[in-house]
Design a protein that fits this description.
TIM Barrel; two-stranded antiparallel ribbon; alpha/beta; eight-stranded parallel β-barrel; 205 residues
């Protein structure tokens, strides 16, 4: 935590970057288990790194998983699971995810197109919601900033949820993002990379 802000460094692919994230005070280390991502890490690779990873909370990032996949992730030792999914996903599907991952450990990341709102049914089901910048083909990591005004409105409209700000956050703009949104949780990824899965490092928020 830095200045009262919890943050996750996502897209980690190496022990070197995990240790660097730990050194700058990251609360959470994010590993993307989505095979189509350029930052993909398999469960086998994660297991090989686990004994040497810093003692920070580990977050698995997946896209529309099956309950069987979630069970494997839980068994691998992740503390939280961040699930990206279409906003048309039925609430019943999220309920099935919650049968495997408790609500306090499930981070929902709905892909919400511009002009649409986050389904209030999702908001009622979990304690954490991550909002990334919408892209018609990608599930995050695009380097584009999102709608900070809408994020702020959701944060104050539903204060029981831990709203996590993501999307193009970098050392150059994170101060402005925090001032504009009041975010107390942030997710950084492409904005601190020199290449997908390879991070450049900075000192504080």
């Amino acid at each position: 935590m830095i200045h009262g802000v919890r943050f996750k460094v996502c897209g980690l692919t190496s022990l070197v970057d995990a240790e660097a994230a730990d050194a700058v005070g990251a609360d959470y280390l994010g590993f993307i288990l989505y095979p189509k991502s350029p930052r993909y890490v398999s469960l086998t690779q994660f297991a090989a790194m686990t004994p040497r990873l810093p003692p920070r909370k580990k977050v698995a990032v997946v896209v529309e998983p099956t309950v069987e996949t979630l069970a494997e992730i839980k068994a691998a030792g992740f503390d939280y699971v961040q699930v990206h999914f279409s906003p048309t996903t039925p609430l019943a599907t999220v309920a099935h995810w919650l049968e495997v991952i408790p609500r306090e450990r499930l981070w929902l990341a709905p892909r919400v197109p511009p002009g649409q709102e986050v389904n209030s049914g999702f908001i009622a089901l979990v304690d954490h919601i991550l909002l990334d910048t919408y892209h018609p083909q990608a599930h995050g990591g695009t380097g584009q900033t999102g709608d900070w005004t809408s994020f702020k409105a959701l944060r104050f409209g539903f204060p029981h949820v831990n709203w996590i700000l993501a999307g193009g956050l970098s050392p150059e703009n994170i101060g402005a993002a925090l001032a504009a949104t009041g975010a107390r949780w942030v997710d950084v990824n492409s904005g601190i990379e020199s290449a997908p899965g390879v991070n450049r490092w900075w000192t504080g928020i």
